[in-house]
Amino acid sequence: MRTLYTAVSTAHGGRDGHVRSSDGIIDLDLKTPKEMGGPGGAGTNPEQLFAAGYAACFESAMRSIARKQKAPLADASVTGHVSFNVADGGRYVLSVELRGKVEGMSREDAQVLMQAAHEVCPYSNATRGNIEVNLIAE
Question: How many CB atoms lie within 10 A of CB 12?
């Protein structure tokens, strides 16, 4: 395996702390959402950050697949929904729903494209077999 890039971020104070990337581009307060018993308010949380990263990476994977199929995407978007769940036995687990929109493509074709992207996206490969990921073409 050859490393192309390594992202580095430091969190301090957990879910009600702060996170900062080594280059300072990410420099955010963290707040536990009210729905999880926290104060809510101004600040992000790990699930929002994961949803943003997964959605961006997944859309890039869709675009890569489309280019290889000689059908580059004019306009597309992916919205990531990351849920924090309590499973049987009280274990905390994440689940993901990725909703994709592709302008000028039927819902069925977009679903096929999303399935292909799911096979190559690094986030999908990292989560496969670990968390439930549902793909929905809109």
Answer: 9
As a whole number of angstroms, the distance between CA 134 and CA 115 comes to: 10
Q: What digits encode the pLDDT tens for the residues 53-96?
A: 999 999 999 999 999 999 889 999 999 999 999 999 999 999 99
Instruction: Tell me the two tokens of residue 89.
Output: 């036995």
What pTM was computed for the model?
0.95
Report the distance separating Cα 100 and Cα 136, nearest Å: 6
Identify whether the C-beta of residue 67 lies closer than 8 Å to the C-beta of residue 76: no
**Token pair belonging to 125:** 């490969």
The tokens describing 107, both together, are 């819902």
Determine the Cα–Cα distance for residues 123 and 61; give it in Å rounded to an integer. 10
